[in-house]
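Preliminary data (for renewal application), zinc ion complex.
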Amino acid sequence: MHAAVVSYLQVALDVPLQRTFDYLWAGPAPTVGSRVVVPFGKQTLAGVVVAVSAELDPARGLTVAQLKASQAVLDDMPPLPADILALCKFCSDYYAWPLGQVIAAALPGALRQPQPWQGGQALQFWQALDVTALLGQLSPRAHKQRAVAEALAVPRSIEQVRAVAHDGGRWLKEWIAAGWVVEAVPQADTAPPQASAHPDLTACQASAVARLNAAQGYQPFLLYGVTGSGKTEVYLREIEARLAHGGQVLVLVPEINLTPQLEARFRLRFPHEHIVALHSGLADGERTRNWLLAAQGRARIVLGTRLAVFTPLPHLALIVVDEEHDQSYRQQEGFRYSARDVAVYRARQAQVPIVLGSATPAIESWRNMREGRYTLLTLGQRAVTGAKPPQMTLISTQQQRLFDGLTQTAINTLRDCLDAGQQALVFINRRGYSPVLACHECGWIASCKRCDARLVLHREDRRLRCHHCGWESPPPAQCPDCGNADLQPLGFGTQRLEETLTGLFPDTPPLRIDRDNTRRKGSLDAMLQQVHAGEARLLVGTQMLAKGHDFAGLSLVVVVNADAGLFSTDFRAQERLFAQLLQVAGRAGRAGLPGRVLIQTRYHDDPFYPQLMSGDYAAFADRVLQERKANDLPPYSAWAMLRAESKTLMRAVTYLREAVQLLRTQPGIHAGAPIPALMMRKANQERAQVLVSSSSRPALQSAMRFLMGELLQKKAPGVRWYIDIDPSEA
Ligand code: ADP
Ligand code: ZN
Ligand code: ZN
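Predicted structure:
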């Protein structure tokens, strides 16, 4: 009798430890990348096999007797391919985060569970080759069979077939065997048989597409063009070319809200391609299905938000990152990463071209372009003939009185615009009614008991709300300090502007669009429909409205209180403000109407504004780069932030001091002293941070990895810490 086959597995688990774990498997070696179920302490966990061997590696320092057995090898997903495992390994090193947790983040939720996923059947879609011929084979009285056959005129999943008739699955099997029914690509019910028209490319677009077509292997491109210059059209052409060669394409977008629009545009252009979306707004089952379709190479276009960057794509041929400067590409919880940066690494790893598109590229990307690492593709003007850049005007709120937040100039211009039958957008980056509720008698201000923050007054439901921790209460009837009953709202939010505008333009009721009234699924879409249909002509909104949307009738944008970002302590604040204001401005005059933008500011003579008004982002970006270089700021120096929070500041700071001691043993690293975070108290936690920097990226990486390993070993009850590499907030 010969011994049973035994394999030794190294498994990455979703636990906060910087190591993999060893298990026995009584059977032939599973493929590396397979999902397994293993015991872990008292728990049962799912993990991913990262190494397999026929003998126990002595370097693991374990005896066979110490090993527990793996309970199951699951086959509900294709094993994670080597390139995705390598990508996760890279991220684990770069972002100093445990490999098991990185891998977990790369998988859809259902494939992180220690049970097999049952939804796999629904992956296949079936369609009758010829419905009439199939019906001819069936008895005229087999009504249910005939109903199923008729349903198969368009692609159906097995679930859909079973919904038509309980026995549908069995008949389907017979018909497939007989060759009457074949596997098909699912389509949206509304997919048109004909692809939408290809507009003639402008000269700039044509030259950009030609250079993309010629790209072989890894080549990063920065596609720089104002909103409306036709960047999306360039993506579509290049995607078409890569699909024609059998490739798969990954398209990243910053916001879930933008995916349905873009998805619709892609479906119109590629009605016969299998397109899937991947974002956190999808139900677990759908997301898992879409992910598997991509991983099997069956979905050919993957449209997704940051988490999609880890999707396995066996035929990956092109990556597109739209609005590459956008903050939403940064994951700010748990495993903190920048999906744009990971996408660039992935393109290099897969040896495929990548297009980073933006009207206001990130300073990091701009530098890579200036230093020759990225190829610049510029789209000079708006694509639609006759569409000109909007005309921008500054209005000083020091020189003009404000009427409920608006200057007379703004009010007059809004009136002219609405009288002319056009649409206008009033932009303010603050939701709620008023950001401050104050007592004029004693100076009391409503503030959050759990954060160093003021409470925002929301009038609709009469609540004071903390936008940082979510705490809320009804506004007090009188000042809690002096009893004064006349508490005053100070400053403006979207709700208060809505009230102002309702008073000013009773015939054109404003439509407010912000996070507060678009939480319900579909509500944003419904509102956007109203805008597109011209039913809503006066819009009030936050940055939700600034990105991506294409409103044909919009000719005027009024920016209320632009200044908030101007004097921030964060060295990136101006870059962001520039991008945001240019984005909002880009909403005006997209489809031929001349656009106007009015910016109300207290600081009209700040040097920031002339550059913004000229719309010359390139000049601005070059100046910012020089400043960063002169001051040794990122991207000229590599930064990491170590943050800690605890019930008391003292505890967080003490913890960080010990971390700084550890860091100082590392070469080439500068670790500052722990300081309180900008908002020191948040949700009843006191927060402190340490800035770690180095002129050498590898030195920073290895020091942070070392630090993570040490900190994970250290018991520090009541202290939560995390490492933020390339922090986007100082
Ligand atoms: P961006 O992605 O840079 O904002 P889009 O690709 O969305 O720009 O183009 C803006 C508008 O111009 C869209 O309505 C698009 O259909 C149209 N467009 C793009 N390229 C052309 C072209 N070559 N000819 C005519 N219209 C175009
Ligand atoms: Zn008072
Ligand atoms: Zn709070």
